[in-house]
Write a structure and sequence with these properties.
Largest sheet: none
Structural class: mainly alpha
Number of helices: 3
Organism: Gluconobacter kanchanaburiensis NBRC 103587
Keywords: Coiled coil
Order of helices and strands: HHH
Number of domains: 1
Protein name: Mobilization protein
Low-confidence stretches: none
Distance between the termini: 82 Å
């Protein structure tokens, strides 16, 4: 293998490592973003069972769901109602 071929191979390997690192970083960022959404959603649902203001927020957010696939995730689901005792 000539020095030029060897250098070209090293460049290609470096590019592949770089692309793999970018893909891993993007996957981690998506995972963290999803985790944040799940945590915030859980907190919102929990507080809606204690404070009707947050229940109204959920009602407004539910009206903004436009995709059928997303609507199906909520079929049969009831938001918690604040205990009025």
């Amino acid at each position: 293998m000539t020095p030029i071929e060897k250098a070209k191979q090293q460049v290609e390997q470096a590019k592949a490592r770089y692309q793999a690192l970018l893909a891993r970083q993007n996957a981690e960022e998506r995972k963290l973003d999803t985790r944040r959404k799940v945590i915030l959603g859980g907190l919102l649902i929990d507080v809606a069972g204690k404070d009707e203001r947050f229940g109204r927020v959920i009602d407004e957010l539910m009206k903004r769901i436009t995709r059928d696939h997303d609507h199906k995730a909520f079929e049969g689901w009831q938001k918690p109602e604040p205990d009025r005792s």
